[in-house]
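Researcher: We are triaging several targets before committing to wet-lab work. For this one, the compound of interest is flavin-adenine dinucleotide. I'm pasting the protein sequence and the ligand SMILES. What I need is the predicted three-dimensional arrangement of the protein with the ligand bound, expressed as structure tokens, so it can go straight into our comparison scripts without reformatting.
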Amino acid sequence: MDFLRPTTWAEALAVKADQPEAVPIQGGTDVMVEINFDVRRPVALLDLNRVAELREWGPADGYCRVGAGVPYTTVVEELGGPLPGLAQASRTVGSPQIRNRGSVGGNLGAASPAGDSHPPLLAAGALVEVESRDRGVRLIPADEFYVGVKRSALEPDELIRAVRVKPATGPQYFSKVGTRNAMVIAVCSFAIALHPDERRVGTGIGSAAPTPRRALDAEKLLAAELDWDAPLDPGLLARFGELCAAAAAPIDDVRGTAGYRVHAIGVLARRTLGWAWNDHLGRRAA
Ligand SMILES: Cc1cc2nc3c(=O)[nH]c(=O)nc-3n(C[C@H](O)[C@H](O)[C@H](O)COP(=O)(O)OP(=O)(O)OC[C@H]3O[C@@H](n4cnc5c(N)ncnc54)[C@H](O)[C@@H]3O)c2cc1C
């Protein structure tokens, strides 16, 4: 197995263009598990750890641009202000060791329906920045990035450069059901982001469909009927939960049944909207 170690982003793109079969490795918390369990035996690994740009984050065109190699620990410690949903989700990933190595870029690269960063990226309306040497940069909306179980819109010669997320203008929450409180893959998860400036609520469902997805009908319901100046109507909250549950399309597996997941998505949706709405009204009163 070749081990390729570019030191710049341009070099990394050149390697990927010339050897599209090379498997990128950032934190290795997915890749090394797969290699150790013989799930895959790549002909070449493309180690991105020497590409310093991938570990940087900062403002860009009104977005917060988070390099693909930024580890979860940094998201938790430094990005809770602008990206509260992603920071909350990052806090639930694995253990401190996994959060020190694992990255949002690696979560996107793996594109698992259970990945914890996907629901908050969907709810916030994030863009995934990908690049190839020959065709340049593409900005892919998060809800177009996931195309199948563990499959993304990334082309073989492309690498993920960063994720761009608008700094939060309202409350955001992430909630995850697991079989225990830590070191657990989600049975299902849900993220919500209030965008008061647009009078819009974003959603993200995790681990309850072949891909992470938004609950589009539930979002439309709130866009049409939510009174942003009033307490949350219990009837509207209930219908929101029902439409979020209806947007799920889960399977039975070792972590939970499809029926349980559908039910739990409805509960998480109502719960997170309730929390976010309390914060929203509290901020207005302050
Ligand atoms: C014990 C344990 C607990 C875990 N717990 C959780 C959890 O609670 N929640 C959760 O979501 N995940 C969990 N994971 C999975 C894993 O930690 C995450 O998916 C993490 O985000 C992967 O990031 P990484 O940098 O380690 O990726 P890597 O393993 O380096 O790569 C993952 C995938 O992304 C690709 N990739 C990496 N960087 C790029 C790039 N720049 N461009 C294109 N492709 C790229 C790789 O080729 C690979 O396919 C856990 C893993 C372990 C081992």
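Researcher: Any quick observations?
Model: The chain has a mean pLDDT of 97.
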